[in-house]
Design a protein that fits this description.
Shape: elongated
Helix content: 40-55%
CATH topology of the largest domain: Translation Initiation Factor IF3
CATH superfamily of the largest domain: Translation initiation factor 3 (IF-3), C-terminal domain
Strand order of the largest sheet: 3-4-6-5
Order of helices and strands: HEEHEHEHEEHH
CATH architecture of the largest domain: 2-Layer Sandwich
Largest sheet: 4 strands, mixed
Oligomer: single chain
Number of strands: 6
Length: 172
């Protein structure tokens, strides 16, 4: 269809002639309400941003000479963070002559990784960083996706139960 004919058809139907695929041969155009199209595309982009998972990194600091009870407490915090779907950065801090024994820090981090293996996987192996040794543990993907879906469903249920629940309550 020629451009003039398409423009006349758009004016008759009170719509806009929008070029959808300019690189195609011949170029593709559609008759549509351009304002409505822009609004709907902005709504889709906003919805996509809302459903995007925000990665949070929690940090847990340990000392090389950690008491067994303190280790269990810190391990419990790491487990809670992983169950919540967050990544955990574990830092072992060395002081004084402890710096000459980095293998002990490595063993401590490996022990912690083995203890929380059912909840997460080591994303970055232990690395010496000055006086500290750092390791990152990420939650398993399927568990993180399940948690994110659960949070989304909970949010949708909360928004849906607002005015709709009030309308249904008197009729029941």
């Amino acid at each position: 269809m020629s451009i003039g004919e398409a423009l006349r058809l758009a004016q008759d139907s009170e719509l806009d002639l929008v070029e959808v695929a300019p690189m195609a041969r011949p170029p593709v155009a559609r008759l549509m309400d351009y304002g409505k199209f822009k609004y709907e595309s902005a709504q889709k982009a906003r919805e996509a941003r809302r459903n995007q998972a925000l990665t949070v990194i929690k940090e847990m600091r340990l000392r090389l000479k950690i008491d067994p009870h303190d280790y269990a407490t810190k391990k419990g915090h790491v487990e809670r963070f992983l169950k919540g779907g967050d990544k955990v950065k574990i830092t072992v801090m060395f002081r004084g002559r402890e710096q000459s024994r980095p293998e002990m820090g490595y063993r401590l981090l490996q022990r912690l990784a083995a203890d929380v293996a059912e909840l997460g996987v080591v994303e970055s192996n232990p690395k010496q960083d000055g006086r500290n040794m750092v390791m990152v543990i990420a939650p398993h993907r399927n568990q993180a996706a399940t948690d994110a879906a659960r949070r989304t469903a909970k949010a949708e249920k909360a928004t849906a139960s607002g005015p709709a629940a009030e309308e249904q309550a008197p009729s029941a």
